[in-house]
Design brief:
Layout: E1 4-8, H1 10-19, E2 24-30, H2 36-47, E3 52-55, H3 57-64, E4 72-77, H4 84-92, E5 99-104, H5 109-122, E6 126-130, H6 142-145, E7 155-158, H7 161-170, E8 174-178, E9 184-185, E10 195-200, H8 208-213, E11 216-219, H9 231-249
Parallel strand pairs: 2-3, 5-6, 5-10, 6-7, 8-10, 8-11, 9-11
Antiparallel strand pairs: 1-4, 2-4
Helix pairs in contact: 1-2, 5-9
Length: about 250
């Protein structure tokens, strides 16, 4: 484990408690707050002897700085991110076709959090992102945007995304990029096998060198007046298409 970070939001704090993967030093919440999530948070914290601190809104705002806390903050130990080799070994041991998502300089914490949340819902096994020009996975609102999914979806940070994608290919995975100028519609692509889905950064998409590493580039056809979808919305469309195709060949698991 690393240093300490602030978790903001009821769902992020609750899922950190449920997962039980990291030490939590204390929880601060709005005095007089109520609701089922907060009740579960306080019950779990009490059972584990985690200090609870009911405070005023002013105090909570001060503690949160510029973070949208939604009435709850927790000081938690930073999670230990797996190396790429560790992530690939974990995925290989699962006994099902790997599905990873690679983020090519996606730097908006809300987008990163939303992609992690969708990855969890669609059954993806992990996220690959870069150490530079990408939103950190903790301490910037990613946990809140992921609605707690960041506790369950491992994130591996790499220095060079292109090298990481080559490593995924060596591990038997197809590298599938998403771009509005793609070779084929996403519904026409075979996404049932082991793949790493590459999503480009806001406003610029997949970088040219990353694009050259892809085995296939898929597009989402647009029928309206908007040129493209937000990266997190695009990731949701593609991840659930992967899930749909995989259910079609394994109906017993659906």
């Amino acid at each position: 484990m690393g240093g300490m970070v602030l978790l903001a939001g009821r769902r992020a704090v609750l899922e950190a408690l449920r997962a039980g993967k990291r030490r939590i030093e204390g929880i601060w919440f709005l005095e007089g707050g109520h609701g089922a999530p907060l009740k579960e948070i306080t019950n779990i914290a009490t059972s584990r002897r985690i200090p609870l601190h009911p405070v005023s809104r002013e105090e909570l705002d001060q503690l949160a700085s510029n973070t949208d806390h939604r009435g709850v903050l927790a000081r938690a130990e930073q999670t230990l991110e797996p190396t790429l080799d560790e992530l690939l070994a974990q995925v290989s041991a699962m006994g099902e076709p790997p599905l990873l998502v690679a983020l090519d300089e996606v730097n908006d914490p809300q987008n990163v959090g939303a992609i992690i949340r969708t990855a969890d819902a669609a059954g993806a096994h992990g996220i690959i992102t870069t150490t530079h020009r990408t939103a950190p996975s903790e301490g910037t609102g990613v946990e809140r945007s992921s609605a707690g999914a960041a506790e369950y979806v491992p994130v591996s940070r790499v220095v060079n995304l292109r090298d990481a994608l080559e490593r995924c290919r060596e591990a038997g995975m197809w590298v599938v990029g998403a771009d509005m100028e793609g070779d084929r519609d996403y519904t026409d692509a075979d996404l049932k096998g082991p793949i790493v889905l590459v999503m480009g950064g806001e406003g610029k998409g997949i970088r040219p060198l990353t694009r050259k590493t892809c085995d296939m580039i898929v597009r989402i056809p647009m029928h309206g007046k908007v040129a493209s979808l937000n990266v997190s919305a695009s990731a949701a469309v593609l991840l659930f298409e992967v899930a749909r195709q995989r259910r079609a060949i394994s109906p017993a698991k659906g």
